Amino acid sequence: MTEFFELAIKYLPELFITAIKYTLPLTAISFFFGLIFASLTALFRVSKLPQNEWAAAFLQIFKWVANAYVWFFRSTPLLVQLFIVFYGLPNAHIAFFQSAWVSAITVFSLNTGAYASETIRASINSVPEVQKQAAESLGMTRGQVYWNVVLPQAARISVPPLSNSLIGLLKDTSLASVITIVEIFYLSQQIAAANYKVLSMYVLVAMVYAFFTTILSIGQHYLEKYTSRFAQ
Predict the structure, then answer these.
(1) Helix, strand, coil: what percent of the chain each, to 5?
(2) What is the 3-state secondary structure (H, E, C) of 121-136?
(3) H-helix or E-strand containing 111?
(4) Which pLDDT does position 227 carry in this prediction?
(5) What are the distances in angstroms from CA 70 to CA 18, 202, 210?
């Protein structure tokens, strides 16, 4: 036990610094873009086809693309997606993804967006149809109905599951170690390989993840409490 505390004193600061420099930015950036992908995908999937044939045809194509996107990223493992983008695409002469950071952000964002889009879609559909009809009867356009009536309520409803997605993403960033990003799990592997304290190092890195997920969970609690003020 004394040896474990000595390792903790020696390596925990380094692990925390690495988390702040790499793991947290990777999580934040990926979640930001993931929400953008999720919102656009959900809006396409819930949109009603317009009467104009050309507009309806274009929207139908976007709906098909959105459905295929969600299907692919929900049907394949995150680890496989990372390998396809980081190792596969550069081999297909797509040099843009030779950067581990670009590949990781791309995969984590798209993966998060696919799952979060289902959350947002369900939240939008949970708003009673009668409220939309009432807003339209007041002369609002379809866009105004979504912006002023539907989306504010959907945002409140989606806070808990989206917060869970953020916490899950933080833990999933440990997979970035397989494409050479030096986040906290990768660092713990390097240290364990050098000092042969494998169990102790993995317990320490688990403690670091637990610390940050606990902080996010506390933030989630207060955010839910704040948004619940607007519930009817």
Answers:
(1) 90, 0, 10
(2) HHHHHHCCHHHHHHHH
(3) helix 100-126
(4) 74
(5) 32, 33, 29
